[in-house]
Write a structure and sequence with these properties.
Shape: globular
Number of domains: 1
Order of helices and strands: HEEEHEEEEEH
Oligomer: single chain
Mean pLDDT: 87
CATH topology: Thiol Ester Dehydrase, Chain A
Strand order of the largest sheet: 1-2-6-7-8-4
Helix content: 10-25%
CATH architecture: Roll
Length: 163
């Protein structure tokens, strides 16, 4: 298992809005204006563990949560609240293995390739296990100025459609 840089003192809960069983990252190893590195320990109690393994498709969510940590760090740096963001799409999800196993540590890396003023972003991501590439993808994300308000606005609009 990797060791986080103690001088960073970055806590997942401070940067990522996910809580409880939906919070999948264990550590933020490093984060800056362009890149984040996080780690996740696959445990016996992992949410989507089936038949002693975690299917490789879950790697997309690990990547998305690493991006959320990057966005949370950026928000803090800019004096803003950490808010919700949205995974818009995934391109070229390439896996080198079909599953992750309990006891493995996933090292998730995400590099910001584009972050537009309108909140749309693109990240190049990869997951390493024991230094070997396990998965890679490009993720598209959307970070509205106020994530919770954005969700509530759309809930209100939908209610108006059904009335």
């Amino acid at each position: 298992m990797g060791q986080p840089d103690a001088s960073l003192r970055l806590q997942v809960a401070d940067l990522v809005p996910h809580r409880g069983a939906m919070s999948w990252l264990d550590r933020i190893v490093s984060v800056d204006a362009e890149r984040v590195v996080a780690e996740a320990d696959i445990g016996e109690g992992s949410l989507f563990l089936r038949n002693g393994q975690l299917d490789a498709w879950t790697g997309i969510e690990y990547m998305a949560q690493a991006i959320a940590a990057w966005a949370g760090h950026r928000a803090q740096r800019e004096g803003r609240r950490v808010t919700l963001g949205f995974l818009v799409g995934t391109r070229r999800y390439d896996v080198q293995r079909q599953s992750f196993k309990p006891g493995e540590c996933l090292r998730i890396e995400a590099s910001c390739e584009l972050m537009a003023d309108n909140g749309l972003g693109m990240f190049a991501c990869r997951i390493l296990v024991d230094g070997e590439l396990a998965a890679s993808a490009n993720l598209s994300v959307f970070e509205p100025p106020e994530g919770e308000a954005f969700l509530n606005l759309h809930k209100t609009e939908k209610k108006g459609e059904t009335s």
